[in-house]
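Progress note, project year one: complex with NAI.
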Amino acid sequence: MQNATLAFLGAGNMCGSIIGGLIAEGYPPEQITATRRSEAPLKEMQAQWDIQVSSDNIATVASHDVIILGVKPQMMKELCDQIRDQVQASKPLIISVAAGLTAETLERWLGGDVAVIRTMPNTPSLLRCGATGLFANNKVSESQKALAESMMQATGIALWVDKEELMEAVTGVSGSGPAYFFLMMEAMQQAGESVGLTPEVARQLTLQTALGAARMATESDVEPAELRRRVTSPGGTTEQAIRTFNEGGLTELFEKAVKASANRGKELAELLDQ
Ligand SMILES: NC(=O)C1=CN([C@@H]2O[C@H](COP(=O)(O)OP(=O)(O)OC[C@H]3O[C@@H](n4cnc5c(N)ncnc54)[C@H](O)[C@@H]3O)[C@@H](O)[C@H]2O)C=CC1
Ligand SMILES: O=C(O)[C@@H]1CCC=N1
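Model obtained:
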C-alpha cells in the first residue's frame, strides 16, 4: 500500500483528517499531495505533515496513482469537468468521500470507464479512530480494492457494503455520527452547569465520561446494553435518568435523525445529478 502515490483534491476537514491519520500511521509524506483553492491552508498542511501541496489539480492527477475527490458534493461536477481529460489519459483509481453522489454519477462525470470507489469516512480518522464504509463500481480490480481498504484501515476501521444504497445508511450512522456525540457532549455539559457545576468542571466530567464509556464499549466483549445495566442500580439514580430519556423517546429520535441524514444524501444525489 505504501508504494501508491495519493492525491487529495480539495483537502479540507475530511481529507485533512485522513491525511493526518495516514501520516500518524507512518505513510510516507512525500507520496501524498493535497490540493486546495487557497494557498495559506496548503502551506499549513505542508508545514504540519511535510506532504506535497499544489493548486494544480490536472498536473496532480497526472502524477498520482490514487485520486481522492475531497470537495463538497456541490463542487464535485466542476472538479470532475476540470480533471476529466487527464483521468481518461492516465486512468488512476478514483476514491470519493462525498455524501450522496453515486459511483455511476462520478464515473459518468469523469467520462466513463473509470474505476471508482465511493467511501464514507468520518473525521476521527485524524486520530486513527475513524469508521469508513466503502463501495466499489465494477471497474475496480481486487488489488485496487485491497489498496483502498488498507488506506482507510490505516485511519481506523473500513467496512465494505455490497449494495450502494447502504452508503446512505453508513452516512446516517458513522459519517454524520461524530456530530451526534459532540451534540450530546454539548448538551450534557450544559445540563451539568444547570445543576450547579462550573463550565470547566462540567466540561471535564462530560468529556472524560464520554471517553471512558466509548473505551469500555469498544475495548470489552460486553454489549453496551449490559454495560448500561451495570451502571443502573435498581431503585438508584441512573434509573431515573434513563427513564427520563426513554419517556422523551430517545431511541425513536435517533432513528429519525439517522434517517434524516441518510435521506439528505439521496436528495443531494438527485439534486446534483442533472
Ligand atoms: N466533514 C465531515 O465530517 C465529512 C465530510 N465528508 C465529505 O467530504 C467532503 C468534503 O467535506 P469537508 O472536508 O467537510 O469540506 P471542506 O469545505 O472542509 O473541504 C473541501 C475543500 O475543497 C476545496 N475545493 C473546492 N473546490 C476545489 C477545487 N476545484 N480544487 C481544489 N480544492 C477545491 C475547498 O476550498 C475546501 O477547502 C464532502 O463531499 C463531504 O460530503 C464525508 C464524511 C465526513
Ligand atoms: O454533513 C455532511 O454532509 C458531511 C457528510 C457526512 C458528514 N459530513
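DSSP finds twelve helices and eight strands in the chain.
The first helix runs from residue 13 to 24.
No further modelling is planned for this target in the current period.
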